[in-house]
Amino acid sequence: MPRDAPRRLALVLLTSLLAFPAVPAGAQSAAIPRPPQLEPDVQFWQRIYSQVTTQGGLLHDDRDLDVVYEELRFPPGLAPGERSDRVDAAREKYQRILKRLATSREDLSDEERRVLRLWPKDVTDRQLVEAAERVRFQLGQADRFREGLVRSGAWEHHVEDTLRRQNLPGELAALPHVESSFNPRAYSKVGAAGMWQFMPSTGRRWLRVDNVVDERLDPYKSTVAAAQYLQLNHSILGTWPLALTAYNHGAGGMRRAKELMGTDDIVTIVRNYQSRTFGFASRNFYVSFLAAVEIDRNYRKYFGPLERHPRDDSRVFRLPDYVPIAALERVFATDRDTLKSLNLALMDPVMNGERFVPRGFELRVPREVGDPQPRLAKLDDDERFDAQKRDAIHRVRRGESLSQIARRHGTTTKQLMALNGLKSPKSIRAGMTLRLPGTTPAPAARRAVPAEPVGAEVYVVRSGDALSDIAQRTGVAEQELMRLNGIRNRNFIYEGQRLRLSSATPTAVVAAANAPAAAERLAADDRPEEDVAAATETVRSRPQPVSREQAVAAGPALVPGVQSAALADPIDYSVQNGATTVQGNETLGHFADWLQVSPNRLRELNGMKPGAALALGRRIRLDLSKVSAEDFEARRVAWHRELQDEFFDQYRITAQERYRIRSGESLWQLTQRTNVPVWLLRQYNPEIDFANWRSGTEIVLPRVEAVAQPVRTGAMSQAHPEPRA
């Protein structure tokens, strides 16, 4: 808003108190401040969310939101193209007026005087010229917000309870209004999904995301994940205004803003921070959230009485076997549409019968079903399976080897070569389609349960086993176990996994036994691809929507914007003045590879002795003679993303806690004891100097658990307490 207009600010505040009062005293926590300097911006979004529908919009200044030139209303049935023409014509009109006012303020028309009065009396000609370039159209959202209020009745209690359990501010419960209008089925064009609009790479940290189950669409599980994600942002950035803005702009981006501006004050950052990616959506995310909080808590004042969706009271339980969806329809006497509406995380391959509902899935059924156990007993023997249906084909992706594909699908390189007529393992290429063996598993009732004798040629991993324990029990060295079983990381084993103890044990036998879990955990082909270019595209490069259809097509968020493809990673991988900071798991060889120079060249450039290792957190000078800084950054980020994706294929973050470093405890000891890799520990603690930490240092420690397949039991297990009546 104009900085030197205290009288106008006072008038705006008085108007807001009379017409649209702020959240009642005591209702809003001090953690979620509503700065008076941002009040005109909040009022703008309250108007967009409650007064202007998608049949119209506001032409306004994109920096000073209290400068609204005109409210446009479109006649019913007007085509989007005709709407765009009207918006363009109105925008050009005000651009001409502003440029005219910048050259002369004499002999003004009534319309020109009206526009001039929107600005302070001492507005300069230059400011008016700049304003001419900032005329923006914002489509109204009142009808969409109203629909979100109706939908929110089903899950708002779960959202509030989750935030309360995590000791997070209750106002965060309004965030799905901004992200998706409380629509758990919402998808954006750049790959974000669900009520909380998680990108795939971000969601996989806390949720299962593949073509069998996408928990981003589960309003219960995604809410828990969102609470953990917001908690992470707050632990990194220190304030809720910055943590919430990071939900749109990324924690790494907000760390840079905080460092460059030298403050964590949201007003200073919103008003003055300049960045190519910090566009209109990021600048307005916090104020639009404040507007959503106000309307959500006082919705009757804005929309009158609403008949909201009743609270979801479905029953939930874990499936002990892999089961076809048709079989569940039969035994629970319900239809597929009902099961889909209650289990949005089940993907199309499950609903159309190409895949089974997976073992361990927390299935929701109507409350009137009652106790599910008697109904489960009605499943026929050939409707319960110990394994998932496997792919019949595999499309080769860039960078894949035949051995990787064989491991992923529980077969051998030799079998794949024979089945596909390949003369060499190297004869595959990206885009090639490979046939896979054995796509239909045997029923659970007919499958023999393998024995688990210690000292046998195959060892079955138990709950709590570490590779060192198995080596001690079996007398086979850790390195040999890793070699025999193709294990790249000694921490990446899981309950129920079959390990070869001797080269005499056929690989195919163990691979087939491990196939169900491997297919569930490591099927990279099942994961939806992200359009990284689209995800990093700036908002200003795209025209603003002028119709509801265009707004929905652009994405479900009520504030038009995009999320970064690596939002949850706050680490800065950029090059500054020819140097960068060493991050987790990076070696001199990595830097040499990314730069296409020799390791010795980097040692020479950085005064390093032969054999010296890079210390985490050290600044290292780079030789950019062969590649540009941009190419280096892209290769580095791609490597880290692959590293993180591989980890989150096998682990999920379940919580975070405050932890004090023990006396004599090393970084290596902590990571080995907790299964938290160095790079993840650094992401949760980007300000900690891990090369020089001391006893008593407090850090944020994420808790992770392996994504293991549930052990088959004879009865259903309760997933979590029933929803309250």
Give the % helix: 40-55%
- Our estimate of the beta-strand percent is 5-15%
Number of helices: 31
Mean pLDDT: 83
Euclidean distance between termini CA atoms? 47 Å
Written account of the structure:
With 725 residues, the chain is mainly alpha-helical. 42% of the residues lie in helices and 9% in strands. It has 31 helices and 13 strands. The strands form six sheets. Strands 2-1-3 form a three-stranded antiparallel beta sheet, with helices on one face. It has a two-stranded antiparallel ribbon with strand order 4-5. It has a two-stranded antiparallel sheet with strand order 6-7. Strand 1 (56-61) and strand 2 form a beta hairpin. The protein is globular and about 95 Å long. The two termini are 47 Å apart. The model is unreliable at 1-27, 446-456, 515-541, 562-566 and 709-725 (pLDDT under 50).
Spell out the blueprint of helices and strands.
Elements: H1 6-19, H2 39-50, E1 56-61, E2 68-73, H3 80-103, H4 110-117, H5 125-132, E3 135-139, H6 142-152, H7 156-165, H8 175-180, H9 200-203, H10 219-237, H11 240-249, H12 251-261, H13 266-272, H14 280-297, H15 299-303, E4 315-318, H16 325-331, H17 336-342, H18 348-351, E5 362-365, H19 372-376, E6 393-395, H20 402-408, H21 413-420, E7 433-435, E8 458-460, H22 467-474, H23 478-485, E9 498-500, H24 507-522, H25 532-535, H26 548-554, E10 579-581, H27 588-595, H28 599-606, E11 619-621, H29 629-650, E12 651-660, H30 667-674, H31 678-684, E13 698-706
Antiparallel strand pairs: 1-2, 1-3, 4-5, 6-7, 8-9, 10-11, 12-13
